[in-house]
Specification:
The structure holds 2 protein chains of 2 kinds. By secondary structure, chain A is mainly alpha-helical. Chain A has a domain of about 230 residues. Chain A has 20 helices and 2 strands. By secondary structure, chain B is α/β, with parallel strands linked by helices. Chain B has a domain of about 180 residues: P-loop containing nucleotide triphosphate hydrolases (Rossmann fold, 3-Layer(aba) Sandwich), CATH 3.40.50. Chain B is built from 11 helices and 10 strands. In chain B, helix 3 packs parallel to helix 6. The longest helix of chain B is centred in the C-terminal third of the chain and has 18 residues. Chain B is globular and about 45 Å long. Classes of the chains: A mainly alpha, B alpha/beta. At the A-B interface, helix 10, helix 11, helix 19 and helix 20 of A face helix 1, helix 2, helix 3, helix 6 and helix 7 of B.
């Protein structure tokens, strides 16, 4: 997973190439709605908004090391915030975005509390419960949410000056929000808070003795992550113009998590790939047969996990690594594959390198090394009579 | 330095003999009571070694000081009570703990690891440039102590050798600008020469920064070389305390309590 450090762009040498990639991606993103048919543009729009939700989930799962099976609930909360504001208060679309973001941030802060006490599967189970109880709740709150009938609201309408069709305008608005959201996620990770978050994921107690407040950072990770899901939900309302409890069943939460893992955890562009997976795989497989989507989705997840355990985002690196290992070692550039970074933590091999370097510095270098070796087993294991068993180290 | 000097004597000890004062410290894990009432003091600027066999409570002592385990009794640092505080609060008070097994953040780069050490100093009360410059200066200072870390500053910490990781863990703790540095078995799993280099750096840090150091070690010989005072723990109690030199020279003591023949080693 040291893709993080690589992906965060610490390597300055890669800048020109990165700039070119960004430029090409931008050109493709702007050109796409003029090239594709309206329905395809709509699909791309959905990919973008799912990417926002996945980027948020990535903050929590990929970088924060916590699991949430309840992000569909935050997505739904964002969608309903927008829908209710549009339906009841006629606020206009733009106002719903900050409201959904802020509301879900606060919700995340509240629901982040279980994250302080639970981890791993236990946390996953508790968060799954959010996703399970939300749809029935939405059905019950009929006066506000419209019950099982849901709410139909206005979609985004292109202003006259733009000269764009509805699908194109919507695409550009969602694209703008997505770009801002992805940049925000990236900068968040590069900040002091992001560093603390990664430290907590790597080694909780070591982070704590460095003065990182676990409770604060774990809850904040949840809140930020919920905020992204809420923004994505709000965009969903703008694009679809209709929300109902059945749109946000707990399957959505599971799909989001699966999409993230398939796209690539703790990778910066993994969410985009994962979003494409979430969007296209079910709809493409639907053409095969009515029952196919579930089967194909499941099989593809299994395949991806076997072929690319680091997700689609990690696939190019793995392929490059495999290729360079087969090629004769002439190209130095290819040698530094992601795999090469992840040397296991064993001391023995690298230690051997550092010993000769240490020698001249150590004044004791002249002595035979053996006299300096009190670490021989006899010493380490020497336990005077009456010493208790090793209770101090769990 | 292989003939380690008689310079680490009482004369060096500062005017604050009770900079860290531990009295009646009890601590444990659930039913297992590990520490059974420790009393000792560490003067400001001193290196204090805590020695003893496995299971004696050395690690637990450090954990109690940094708030990682709860303790009863009293531990004061510069007059402020440390017990009952979280590790994060202890860190705020200037206690930097280098845990056993290093605890580096393996997915972060070396430099990011060091910056985590400055986490508290760049907090919400952070006022911009002056502190940023100070952190940059501290990074340089750490790199001067550990030149190998400078070479690897952009490398993931997980790809470092064990010795380098230990250096990183110590460097990260120093970024906190601690008044009390707790080192838990820095020699664990390291080659003897690397260990010796590490201890020389700890000695240099102590001399140049006047950082008070409490080091827990199985390797009594090395720890006694850099320590001013030493305490021998057995089964959660102190069985022996005194100037490091005295304990080093008292071969019988070492043999009985530490299972090491210090004299024969010196002869070699």
């Amino acid at each position: 997973m040291n893709t993080i450090t690589a992906a965060l762009g610490t390597d300055r040498a890669r800048r020109p190439r990165a700039a070119l990639t960004v430029l090409l991606a931008a050109a493709a993103a702007v050109g796409a709605p003029f090239y594709f048919a309206p329905f395809q543009v709509f699909q791309l729009t959905m990919v973008l908004l799912y990417a926002v939700a996945l980027a948020g989930l990535n903050l929590l799962v990929g970088f924060g090391g916590q699991i949430s099976l309840g992000h569909g609930a935050f997505f739904a909360a964002g969608a309903y915030t927008a829908a209710v504001m549009l339906d009841r208060y006629d606020t206009g679309h733009l106002a719903t975005l900050p409201a959904a973001a802020a509301g879900c941030f606060l919700l995340g802060l509240g629901f982040g509390v279980p994250a302080l006490r639970l981890r791993g599967l236990y946390l996953a189970l508790v968060t799954l419960s959010f996703a399970v109880f939300l749809p029935p709740l939405l059905k019950r709150l009929e006066p506000v949410t419209g019950g099982s009938m849901g709410l139909t609201v206005d979609k985004l309408q292109p202003p006259a000056w733009s000269g764009l069709a509805e699908d194109q305008w919507t695409y550009f608005v969602v694209l703008a929000v997505t770009v801002v959201a992805l940049l925000l996620a990236r900068n968040l990770l590069r900040s002091r808070v992001g560093r603390a978050l990664l430290a907590v994921r790597d080694n909780e107690s070591a982070a704590e003795v460095m003065g990182v407040r676990l409770s604060l950072h774990k809850t904040l990770a949840f809140a930020w992550s919920a905020m992204f899901a809420g923004v994505a939900g709000c965009l969903y309302t703008w694009v679809i113009g209709f929300v109902s409890p059945d749109s946000f069943s707990f399957v959505l939460s599971i799909t989001l998590l699966a999409g993230l893992v398939v796209g690539g955890l703790a990778s910066l562009y993994g969410p985009l790939l994962g979003a494409a997976f979430v969007m296209y795989v079910p709809s493409v497989s639907q053409d095969v047969s009515e029952a196919a989507p579930g089967v194909v989705f499941g099989l593809l997840i299994i395949t991806v996990m076997f072929v690319a355990p680091t997700g689609l985002a990690g696939l190019p690196g793995r392929v490059l690594g495999a290729v360079s290992r087969r090629l004769p070692r002439t190209t130095a550039a290819l040698d530094r594959t992601p795999e090469a970074d992840s040397v296991p933590e064993t001391d023995s091999v690298p230690e051997a390198d550092s010993v000769p370097e240490a020698e001249p510095k150590s004044p004791a270098g002249s002595r035979p090394a053996t006299t300096l070796t009190p670490a021989d087993p006899a010493v380490v294991d020497a336990e005077p009579v009456g010493a208790p068993p090793r209770t101090e180290k769990e | 330095m292989s003939e380690p000097t008689t310079d680490r004597t009482e004369a060096e000890a500062s005017a604050e003999p009770d900079f860290l004062k531990v009295s009646g410290l009890h601590a444990g894990y659930g039913q297992a009571r590990v520490l059974q009432g420790l009393d000792f003091s560490v003067a400001r600027g001193e290196v204090c070694a805590i020695l003893g066999p496995n299971g004696a409570g050395k690690t637990t002592t450090l954990r109690a000081l940094s708030g990682m385990v709860r303790g009863r009794g009293s531990v004061t640092l510069n007059g402020t009570e440390l017990l009952g505080r979280s590790p994060e609060q202890a860190a705020r008070l200037g206690v930097a703990h280098v845990p056993e097994g290093r605890g580096t953040f393996n997915d972060l780069t070396v430099e990011e690891n060091l910056r985590i050490g400055a986490h508290l100093r760049t907090g919400p009360r952070w006022r911009g440039r002056p502190e940023r410059a100070a952190v940059a200066a501290d990074l340089e200072r750490i790199y001067d102590y550990f030149p190998k870390l400078r070479q690897r500053s952009r490398q993931a910490a997980g790809s470092l050798s064990g010795g380098e990781q230990q250096m990183l863990a110590i460097g990260r703790a120093l970024m906190l600008r601690p008044s009390l540095l707790l080192l838990d078995e820095p020699s664990l799993g390291l080659a003897p020469l690397v260990t010796r280099e590490l201890f020389e750096i700890v000695r240099a840090v102590n001399e140049e920064e006047r950082t008070t150091v409490v080091v827990v070690e199985q390797n009594a010989q090395l720890a006694l070389d850099i320590a001013h005072r030493a305490h021998v723990l057995e089964a959660g109690r102190l069985v022996l305390s005194g100037p490091a030199q005295q304990i080093r020279e008292d071969g019988q003591v070492a043999e009985v309590y530490l299972g090491v023949s210090v004299r024969s080693r010196k002869a070699g």
